[in-house]
Protein 1
Amino acid sequence: MYAHGKIGGFLHLYIGQEATGVGAIAALRPEDYVVSHYREHGHCLAKGSEPRRVMAELFGKATGLCRGKGGSMHLFDTSTGFLGGYAIVAGGMPIAVGLAVASSYRADGRVTLNFFGDGAANEGEFHEALNLAAVWKLPIVFLLENNLYAMGTAVARVTAEAELYRRAEGYGMPGLRVDGMDVLKVFEVTSEAVKRARKGEGPTLVEAMTYRYRGHSMADPAQYRTREEEAEWQRRDPISNFRRQLLASDKGFSDKDFEKVDQEIGEVIAEAVRFAEESPELPLSAIYEDIYGE
Amino acid sequence: MPVITYREAISQALREELNRDESVFIMGEEVGAYGGSYAVTKGFLEEFGERRVKDTPISESVIVGAAIGAAMGGLRPVAELMTINFSLLAMDQIVNNAAKLRYMSGGQVSVPMVVRTVSGGGRRLGAQHSQSLEGWFAHVPGLKVANPSSPYDAKGLLKTAIRGDDPVMFIEHSLLYGIRGEVPEEDYTIPFGVADVKREGKHATVIAYSRMVQVALGAAEMLSEQGIEVEVVDLRTLRPMDAETAVNSVRKTNLAIVLEESPKTGGFGGEVVSQIQEMAFDYLDGPVAWVGGAEAPMPYAKNLELAAMPNENTVAEAVKGLVSRRY
């Protein structure tokens, strides 16, 4: 769709990191909030958005989640509690803290799950957000998706302490590292952190070690890393591994079940594309809508 | 009608809104235990408690960002940034997030947040504590910007800001906190985008906002003794801006002087000048004059600082210059 010009702008694919998003979001309740970054298609879908409305947003159509005014990097769906893709690195972190402030203020029992990348850990907003969340014991989980490269720069090249979960110590909160390619492990660790947050015990920093198969965006041929490294991570592919795990379990899964799932996914995508293609563009008057409430 | 200070008027607005609406709360540096760096929230912590009056670390970005998030979560935060100079540390949150979230989400999200901050020079605080950056914020669609010049306006505009559903930069002026004016006891609000004629006149119009309105009124008083009657239009809010009231005044007086404290280059005054020449060109008896601060960082030395900001004399000279050209 991107190659055909149906999707414009930047497009940051989540392929390879699925276990992190899915495992972490599975630990939430429907009313909980998710605040993400600009590689957020997967998070938005995992939180429950309709795929066709996500696709329509990528197409810039009036039926998109954000009426086509957000685009790939700015998905929002208030109906699922997905409160945004933010395209300034670490820019969503203070906002996630604020949602947790609202939950704490009203004692509504909600938890905010905040995704950000290894690049964000070197922004000042990372520090401000973690510190305030810890001082105020807010119901929030900071989920650091460490895919080893901030755009094209390897973490260790620009980070004094490359074991990022250890930063938590400086904020007096628990910090954990988890295999981000293993959906069950991510689920387990995030569940503990969510439970802690919901009990009023404050934030946790979870660092999920993961890998994006594609470049930073569609414009990036990823020449800063080796094909061997890519192949090594792809051998640990979270989806194939989870399938193997399920097949090996005593839950009675067979290859047929997965073929069926694959087929269903294919249908959902095809329908989403069809919906996006057939949806109308916005009238030009929409330029001046949604700027102010009154 | 009671006469109170600008500081008391703002304090009253905050107190009344805290009492009126449980979703309103205050957060910022020194707003609680210290009582506010300009003493606006003195006694609030004792009166409303830590839940409603939150002291924060010196972390401007998360002060504003958390206020945005809390606003998205259904609250009405009033975040305080100690001075507008420190807002530069929160620029990402103000410009990239607060101003754009409603738009980028296709109208799903609203950000009913007020950022209260303090601008202006005149207290010998040097270049990093004396800026007037309101024009930067007024440039950004999605933000609203208020610059009240009087106790009455400050209270009414702040209530509107808190009750509204959009992010507002509410910019106070450090030299105005002590000025006094009449403020009614009953509840009132002032709509954004409605300028106010602070003094009527017939020979020229001075258009200003914030402290420069007081300077313009002082100049008008001086000029009145010399037989020149100046009309003073207070824009009150820069975004939305009420150009119509300014233009109508210029159509009456036929001369316009735009006055601001900040350096003129790229400043908000240019916007006002442009609108006047566009909408009142055929009524003008002379070029639109534009008086602003020096094109320099604010100096510390007393004589230099005074010379770097417009004052009653410079404004009066500019008016006389225009008026004398007419005949």
Protein 2
Amino acid sequence: MNRFRVPFRILAVLIVTAIAWGLRARAVNLLPIDYDEDDYLRAGQESAHLIRTSDWRGFLDTNYRPEHPPLAKIIIGVSILSAPEKPLTPDAPTTAGPNQYLPRDLVKPARTVNAAFGILTVFFLSLVNPLGGLMLAAHTFTIKYVSQIMLEAFPALTSLLMVMSYLQWKKGKRSGLNGWLILSSFFFGLTAASKYLYCVVGIAVLVDWYLTAKQDASLKSFFRNALIWSALAVLIFFAFDPYLWPDPIDRLKESILYHAAYSENASEVQSANFPLWQPFVWLTMSPAIWHDGVFPVAPDLFITIFAAFGLARLWKKERVYVLWLGLALFFLLLWPTKWPQYIVTLTAPLSLAAAEGVMATWEGIVLWWKGRKNKPAVQYKKVEIRNVIPWLVPGLIAFALLTLLPLLFQFAVSLTDFNTASIRDGFQGGIWHAVWGGITGQIRAMPLSFSDRSNKVQYTGLGSYFPVLNFLANDGVLVFNVLWTILSVLLQTGLGLGIALLLWQRGVRFGKFWQAMFILPWAIPEMIGALMWLNIFQPESGWLALAVKTYGPNIPFGFFAGWENTPNLWLIVFLIPAIWYGFPFMMLASSAGLKMIPTEVFDAAAIDGANIWQTLRYVTWPLLLPLLIPAIIIRSIFAFNQFYLFQAFYFQDSTLATLSYNVFNPNNGFGRYGGQFAISAVINIITVIILVGFVMLFNRWSKAGEGVSYA
Amino acid sequence: MRKIPFWRQIFTQLAFILIGAFVLLPVWSTARLAFDGSLIGRPTEFRFTPKEFSLDAFLKVLDKPYQSVQFEILFKNSMIVSLGAALLAMILGASLAYAFSRFRFPGRQPGLFILLLAAILPPIAFTTPLYIVLSILKIRTTLLGLTIVYATFAMPFCIWNMRAAFQSVPKELEEAAFLDGAGNFTTFLWITLPLALPSIAIASIIAFLMAYSEFAIGWLFVEKASTVTLAMSIYAIVQTQYLGGAQPWSYLGSLAIIMSIPAILIFIIFQRTLLDRMMFGVSGE
């Protein structure tokens, strides 16, 4: 078996590269002209002109769109050298729409060279991990932005090469500078000279390097080497950025300051009004919906999901990729400009993480399959089975009628286009008729169409799933729901645990009174609590809006005014009632947990001279956490399904809410055509699939919980 | 027992005052509207306290809160539906819960998985099919139909909880009853059920509250004003209010306060056991 490993690997790399080639070649030919392509083509034309006329001094003062360093633009210029010279693409402001009149015989070579760098990136990544290479090869956002006249393709390649050569160095002796390290700083310099954003990768390398040096207790040589490495990179950056030579300080300052000003003031950034978490939305959606027929597959969402599960494994294998992914994501979250092409900075490590996620899933399935055979078959007693029947049957009938049947029905509806137009037919068995016909192959699946609504229920097969998943991804519903769950549970737990710890101190005055008061939000029905908060946040007549109207916007919390137009504030305004409603539960759960920890442990800690924080960190927290996990899972499920809060805050046509809310209001996502029962059903099925994951967590915890008892 | 130092006491109390303000803020924002007699439509000026203190809104709401339906009818509907749903869910679910808690049979593990999944599904998952089934049975717009809807929402949760309750009854007690010649059913009725009753009662209170405060989905099952529940009438007021209706906002506030009182009482009395039940009976007791 081992004999075939190397040839097999080579074959895998070649196949993956070929796939990348095919997909990118297709994109080069089919993608329409996008924003900014005219700008960078013009920059390329300027460089090409300088090269043709051998005007080398001209590079000192030529850098169209000087906010980006010139290297990637010069490369575009080189790529169009063999094409006939065309008049310079007109200068247009950054707000201008895509210029559809760019000469095709310039666009083609410029795009092709960029795509070639994209293919090379996939090639090198598949040397690290062929599966990861495959992920990157098929990642549609990456395909799009490396196959257009953008500045992404080259720095994406050089930043990967920088990390790979650094890792080569790390694998070796790690001592001193050698060729690999110098190569790595060379690529860092090239990266910086192409697009600043990709320099985040350099920080990841430095962090990893520092951590490794700390492990080896060789910090001294780290500081020396890292300094040389960085200095070399700066030199190379400078060498490949001729525009800087005449006036380095001012031009560098100008180009960097431009980005800060752009993110604050540019009208296109303002009008896009992207939320803080928009990079996550880019990661879950695919440009396939903008460009019909360009991408044969759009696995972006699944790559991101697998990557989330593969992070831990990747960290164990090679930390620097996770650092790269994390730092880049962190930067993109903080940075106010949120264009989709920025995620190309991190799709390489993302693909590696996704590959690990796929492997972990695969191994899990294999393990389960093997374990299934080894498990001894449970012997059931005949008497017991006979005895259980009278208990099971009546309950099962009720359960099947009231719970299973509706779920089955939902699934059936999700395979059709059932809506208000076909409601009568649906009531008279049209759904079963359509689904039965579809499954048995008597009826062909119809494409989902909203405008042409038949009064008969039509079978669509799984045809509605992709539009719905697309809607959930594009409108950010999926990301919002996950973010919502994590943030609201985190904050509820933080507040609840904090209060429980405060109440738990010996001799706190009025403890009983405070606890009774803090339970109040839990006791008020969720919808009424939401209405109470709505009295505060209602945009026109709410308490806050009136206060701002009376006293001006500079009062405390005045910045919340107009929250309904800003996605970030929108999230916060919904989180406030969610925390208010949820923290009492976590407080009670924490209090109950704290009571179960034997006091001797704390006496022991006190004898050993631990202070408050040490006791909390090393004694209370590890003992409490296993007791809190059930409560955290319950709250997560609740937060994930949160519906009444969003329904009570009376906003029509908004999709920034949980899946449950969108099940109830499917028309928000699907525009003018009301009563899309089928869409509801599809969202419902997706919710069920996600909740199955939760139940697995739940089961594992309840098994683990049996072993935990301190009382 | 050593008491905490003075500065920590002060810090703790200050923190609690802040959190208390956070807890009470929305309650007060509602109360200041509910007790304001000067409101004609929406509030137009910022006030911390009611402009004219009055109980008019409460009296109006206790008479005819929604359209021309009397409060007693709404309250009666709420009670019928909520109590009915809790009872129905319990009765329909009890035998299944007992089967899963006491017997080993093929398909038990997958069954438990499905039960738990059903218990954590959002109620909306069941809405459309119920709508159609109840329409076909011609009881969609009746109180019975609504009761069935809410019972459906509550049943998986109740089954899961009753299962835990039955499991916590010592098996030895049942075995003793068997030895004395009691049958399965007799043992369940006279031994297990009474012993598990307190936990079951708490679970049914949760089912009751679920139905008591549900409004959005129930609204789909209502056509006549006479089958509206309290929670729905609140939502109806919200809808007219934000669509520019002329009702004073004080009605909504006062009705919300009235509706919360029973729930608050229940929670304050049973807080510890409610918590345990809501954790699906698996918190470490």
Protein 3
Amino acid sequence: MKKNTIVKLRWGLHILLALPFFWVVYLVVSGDIGTDPAEKIVREFGFDGACILWLSLAMTPLRKLTGNAIWIAFRRPLGLWSFFYLSLHLCSFLVFWAGLDFQVITEELSERPYIYIGVAAWVLLVPLAVTSTQRSRRRLGKKWNQLHRLVYLSGALAVLHIVWVSKLDYVQPLIFGFLFIAFMLLRTEKIKNILRPAKS
Amino acid sequence: MLIKSKDPSEPKSYEITPESGYLSRREWLKRAGYLGVGAAAFTHLGAQAKTDANWQAMLRSKLASSNQWPSSAKDELTPYEDIIKYNNFYEFGTGKDDPSRNSKDFKVDPWRVEIEGAVKRPGKYTLEDILKPHPLEDRVYRFRCVEAWSMVVPWVGFPLADLIKRFEPTSKAKYVRFETLVDPDRFPAQRFGRSTLDWPYVEGLTMAEAMHPLSLMVVGIYGKPLLPQNGAPLRLMLPWKYGFKSIKSIVKIQFVEQQPRTTWQRMASQEYGFYANVNPQVDHPRWSQKRERRLPNSLFNPNWVETQKFNGYEDQVASLYKDIDLSKNF
């Protein structure tokens, strides 16, 4: 594939990934954000971040399945955009949902497992975002790959967070959980051998 | 003297399909792909239009002449728009906006309330029967959801105790068990393959709780008839308990000896108990109950309010629970 095409596709991806953010901004500005704005915003950004993170986890399996390396070109934008949304998710939780009330924050953070599991999942993404540049990759070499495997732990914690936060509707958590397991399985040696395109 | 409807167009009991057969036939039709069965399936109940239209007129007239309850809450009222758009009513879907969005075609015609169990006057009552002798009261109650948000709602209704007295419960009646309508036509989330809760939605109270002066049978909000998303045509309001106890769209009231197993108890008994009294000292296993978000709030002000024991109705209801350990019996 031409480099030009890859660049165009990446720009297109950036525009698509920015849309959910502008959607939330639109809801707030138009007053259509509902009766409990913070609850809705935290939920929206969390869902957006999780979906995009899941997309980023799908890139390697897609490369294996299609034999095309283009997917890897999308992996970093997806990872960074998911970090963007998940950071907004955490910030809106602290600023809008908790109202920057110190007592609310410390109580919720310490006593509610789903909150500190969620924070842990986000913290694991920080070094990944920081070392996402080409320069970091060159500097860290093999260690870069090892470091970025933290995304798997982050994803697993995210699944727990999503399961624990829902009152009863298990459809969404089940889908996220099932997909996560599928993406992990697609990376294991056995499955890699099955999927590897036949060598001449 | 209670007069049951003698409308000649009302079908004789032998003409009415027994409920279990009716429901399973509907389910079969659904699975076979016959989706718009609704109207056809209801015709076998006969022409109820006359009786139920009477009820609509009666309700409006009673709403217009309701009395103000002297002990209404003094908190700031939640606007009507928020009350009708932010709801937990899983029969319509689990989103907060699902009930208002998915209830546009919800019909209250025809509606029957079955009274069963340890009473001298059981039977199938029309809405007109239920409402007729009761003047209505405007009562502003605080409403506290177990999810830790709350509203202040001007309900219109009459004391549940006054309704119960008419059925003449016997000494065997220790608990009151309520059921919500089951109807995949009117409740989209009850359709095949889509449910979250087990249906019908069941709730229960001790006789003492049911007969308490605060227990309200509600027919309206802000002087208007109840909308489907708020539990039309009849719902309970128990202001000292978490909102899920205030069962909506009631079709059955049974008087029983055993404590009923309620829906949320069945789904997660370690999280939702039978009493479900508002209590900041007893946290939900997954979140705190010490405070609540008073709605509507705004982006920069979540409007956290300290939760009060029994939602601020401690003086009126504490005596019901003086011998009970509230941390165990939540």
Protein 4
Amino acid sequence: MRLPDSGPAALMNGSPKFRRTLARVMTVQIVTLLLLWMLQARYTA
Amino acid sequence: MHPINWVIVIGYLVYVVVDGIRRSKGTHEIEGYFLANRNLPWWAVGLSVMATQLSAVTMIGTTGQGATDGMRFVQFYFGLPLAMVILGVTLVPFLHGARVFTAYEYLEKRFGPRTRSLTSLLFLVSRGMSCGAIISAPAIVFSAIFGWPVWMSVTLIGIPTVIYTMIGGVQAVTWADVKQMFLIVGALIAIVVVLLIQLPVSPDEALRIAGATGRLQVFDFSVSATETYTFWSGIIGGTFLSLSYFGTDQSQVQRYLTARSVDEARSSLLMSAYWKIPLQALILLIGVLVFVFYLFQAPPLLFNPAHERTVRSAQAEEFAVIESRYGAALGARAEAARAMAAGRTAPSAFLSADSAVSAVRAEALVLAEQATGTSSRDVNYIMPHFVLNHLPLGFAGIFIAAVMAAAMSTIAAELNSLATATVIDFYRRWIRPQATDAHFLAVSKGATAFWGLFACVVAVFSATLGSLIEVVNRYGSFFYGSILGVFLLAMIPGARAPGAFFGLIAGMSTVAAVSLGAPQISFLWHNVIGAVTVVFVGVVLSALVRGPGSAARAGG
């Protein structure tokens, strides 16, 4: 059985769709952490 | 519980079994039984991954943790999205592209049968025992609440799960997970709505009260290896833990091996990356709101009803005295909370009243420990008490069904993956390599039934096996990071079989030494230590000795 190539280029060969999803995931995380930060800043003495 | 709630619970159990079996199309060969012919849509796989992670302990334990300790536990998940992204570009294409059944099968192609068998065996031992623990946690709570024997609760949760997993294979597991995920999230949202309606203060006032107690303190930036939940342990240790769990644990890997393509497998993992932190924050916030609710509605002195019954009969007088002091302290705290919410007093007055309540409750917990001879920690009983006593008719049934759904989705995935590892990594590899597909399918169903019954027996005897389960879980954490190290090593072109095998043993030994020698170090760091040790030892040994590795890669 042939195994997939392990070179860095092969590992990063996600489709444009995947890269867009990746950007969205990171954006959602940053927004979530900001919201949690605002919750803490507003209500914690 | 009201009969209508029981009708909801029983209706759910019947539905999940019947529908699970109905969904078992294409399970005539082991490829269909274990991997759904690699043809499931990404959203179903993604929901299945999330449902598998969300166990009954999350529903009852994490909400209880939110009520007692606040939101800081959410930091535990900060590394998860990053881990999902890393896995999406590294292990997912490797494993999906290799067309394997188990993650460990891939290791044989890279490092030979010894490393494969060892990692698979470690998985079977730890997951087999933890599956029992996953059933026993809600079963013990149900037994205490409803007064059932533990075996009855275990049967109610375990047997339907074994039936649909055994008959339907991964298709039944995945489609049941999808529905269970909707039920769980629906139940959580319904509880938030009911809580907000029932609270005698506005949401803003409720959050101000909770904030005064420190329960909305999410971030802790302190640099400490001994503090379990900090921003840094979450980001670094949490990333390694998530990489280990989602990248090397068969119960997770098998989910995304069922996806139609590498891109769909990646997308299914990214669903967890999107929703895990918001979902956990919601679950913890529910716990925080339950804490606020109980500021205005008298909570019991002991949330565990079984302990309360025992203490009432064994030390009635002493308990009555504490109870009367508790009532007075609760009244003072409720008044202080109202005054603070209205802006009439400073938070310090409320905090002092809250401390007085905690002090009286601590006395009752000591009493319970003396009377029962067991731990009186009752965090897992806070949410069930709230649900059964304060939610409108029908909601308690939905919540109990959701807790069962959470338990069943996790157990089903684990049983399915345990059967896969047993049949593919051991039976087909070492005992009957040439048998027919029909034979393997029959053995797979038998293996699912065996692991199901094994988990139920472990769950029933969990009280007696308590220390054994703890030992297995503890040793399980010894090799989680180390197994990740082997997979990382597999991606290093020069790594060889002896390096991987002895690196794995070195990694586990190092984590064991750290865990026993410095028990104060948070377990989140164990995964980092294990993975780094395996990679380091593996690379050094590979450079020094020769063995199968590069040749296997090149030859395929």
